Amino acid sequence: MTHSIDMKNKSLSVQELIRPVHRFRVFPNRDYDLSLAEMAVLQTSPIQRLRKLRQIGLGYLALPTAEHSRLAHGLGTAYWAVEFLNHLRSNFFSQSVGDGFDPPGNSQRLDDLEAGVGPDVSTDLVVRLFALVHDMTLLPLGHTLQYQLGYFNKQKNNAGRAQWCLQWIRKELKTDLYSVYGGSDFPQL
Predict the structure, then answer these.
(1) Report field, pTM of the whole predicted structure over 0.85
(2) Which residues, 6 or more positions from 174, have their beta carbon under 8 angstroms from its beta carbon?
(3) What CA–CA distance (Å, rounded) separates 89 from 111?
(4) 98: helix, coil or strand?
């Protein structure tokens, strides 16, 4: 896993959470390094439930090879989110021109964001986890029910489902992390 950010400025807990623990192939010739935090979240019930949901609903009936799950989609999204961040850090426009008229480049914006979140939060980890869990509130045939048929389209309902899922994940993580770390040297959840 390549990080352009300076992890030395992050707390030991954040450094431990972002540490890669498992590599797997997400696309041909493209590997993804899951962090410790992602592995922990990946093992929770709300995320494991996504294994049983097809990403394109009934579309596999028309496209028999399109059988990937929402979990596979979330892992692919996390991969591309990391790629996007890495490219933001290294692209041609990553540095400001320095003439006083152009806005700061991507690199400066990301550094400002990283400084703003402080030593107990990692922008990379937030992006990775959000990408991984972004579909956690969807129901089977969720997009069909939501967009084509007009059910479950109230944002407040989705926010409520997201809050419920996040609380469930937090409860499972708290129990699992406490048993692994004995409650010491780990941030409060």
Answers:
(1) no
(2) 189
(3) 9
(4) coil
